[in-house]
Each structure stands twice: as structure tokens, then as C-alpha cells.
Amino acid sequence: MRISYIVFFISLTAWGQSVPQIEVLPNPKSLEDFDHQYKGCLENSECDQVMGLQLNRWKELVKRVQNEEVTEKKKNQFLELFRSKYGIPVEFYTTEKSQQGFKPLMFNSHCKNHNPKPPGQKTLKGIAFVKALNSTAATVWRDQTQIEVPISELFRPQPVTVYLNEGPVTFLLPIDDQPLFMKEGQLFVLKEEDGLFYTLKINKAGDWKIDNLDLSNLSRWSEHRSEVTCPKDDKKLAPEEFGVEFCKTIWNEDTKKTVVVRLHQGCA
User: What is the domain partition of the chain in residue ranges?
Assistant: First the structure.
């Protein structure tokens, strides 16, 4: 393991165990510094210094992983270590009320149904650092504290239903994520961060792990993904925040056949 990674994670551990010194930002040094009052926050977002620090730490790791000459396996190990300690940034739907609790980064949704007229409670897009996500709660890391945030209007992930031979199984995924394939009853989701691709493995209990995956099989898995007609279901499977549903096939490594998954998004 390169010494730069050792130093980086030692600094992360120290940051996680002590209260960070939050100071007024100096004069901007790059174009990115003009995007938001707090470095690390996204442009046009409601985001405080704590979230800015966490996002900046994540971006630093991504840059180091991209620039260092280490194997793909090592890169994924470093990402998984970060996820297990501090979570990874993911998107979900939320409301202003979340600022009274776990205070995610928030920005407006472009969906008309999320912006009622006359003005009422808006549905916003949120970003928080999440370690795991099960049917009842998200495990969120914020400001040196692990918080169990109930699945509700304050944290609304995307329900993804897989139609297996033994019956349908619903997983909760970040909004706009789509599974790449299935293996051993787990979904594998390909994620991207500033040009860095990595794979998130999700089991039925909602446990997450960044897995080392041979991406040479990417084209084989991708060629099995196609839009299909959704199975008939008498009950609505998604909360009201999701106005659009659609179905795709993905490859199931266990059965060596495709399986249908029902996905949801806020609007078309």
C-alpha cells in the first residue's frame, strides 16, 4: 500500500474522531471556489460547511484513486474502506424539514409534480453520505455521527422490484440508479464519480459494499439490458414522489437468464 494512501486514511480517521476546525474561506483560488459559499458544496445547493467538508474529502479520495498507479482491486479496497467508515454520497428525495435533522445537501428538482402551484411543500433532491439502506432506514454519516434516518418523506429512495421465480423482491436504491446485473441474490450497480467507475453491491437486507468487479464483462451484462412491458400489478409500488415507472431486463448470473426489474423516477 502506498504511503500516500496510509497518510490519507490516517488523516480521515483523525478527522472522524475530532471536531474539524471550520473557518471562513479565504479568497477563491479556482473557478470551483466561486460555485458555492462553502468549498465542496454543489452550485445552487443548500449546503453547510459540514457537508462541504465531507464532499471535499470524498473528492480528494476519488482524485487520489484516479491518479495513483495501483491495481483496480486496490482502488476498490480504498473506496470500500471509505464507504464503511464515512458512507458515500447518494441522491434521494427529501423536503425542507430534513434541515431540522440530518441536514442533507439539497437542491431543486426539475419535476413539475415536485413544485406544486400554488406553492406548497416542495419535493427536493437531497445528497447525504450513506453506508447502507434497508426497508426501514438509511444509515447516514454526518459530522462524526452515525444516524439512522427512517424511510419517509425526509429520505425517499427509489424502490426497485426484481421479479424472481420465487416471487418479487424489492430493493431500495439511490434515485436514478439502475442495476447492472444480479448474482447470488444481490444487485450490482455501476456508479460513476468524476470519471471514476466503481460497483456497489446491495443485498436483500440492504447492506452495501463496493465490490471489485471485472469490468471486461461490462458489455456482456449491458447487452442483456432492454426495456420491456412491466408485469401487471394492482397496487402502486412507489411513493407519490415517483411519477414514472418502467421495466428493464437484467442478467441474472445465478440462473443464466434475464430477469425483469421495475424501476422508478420522479418524472420523464
Answer: 158-265
Specify the pairing of strand 179-183 against strand 244-252.
Answer: parallel
- C-alpha grid cell, residue 34: 466561486
d(CA 225, CA 249): 5
pTM for this model (two decimals): 0.86
| CA angle, residues 111, 113, 116, in degrees to nearest 5 | 115
- The confidence band for 194, taking pLDDT boundaries of 50, 70 and 90, is very high
Q: What are the grid coordinates assigned to 87, written together?
A: 458512507
The reported pLDDT for the residue numbered 236 is: 75
Looking up cell 431543486 gives 108
Query: Using CA atoms, how far apart are residues 11 and 41, in angstroms rounded to an integer?
Result: 21
Cα 129 versus chain centre, distance: 8
Greatest alpha-carbon span in the chain: 60
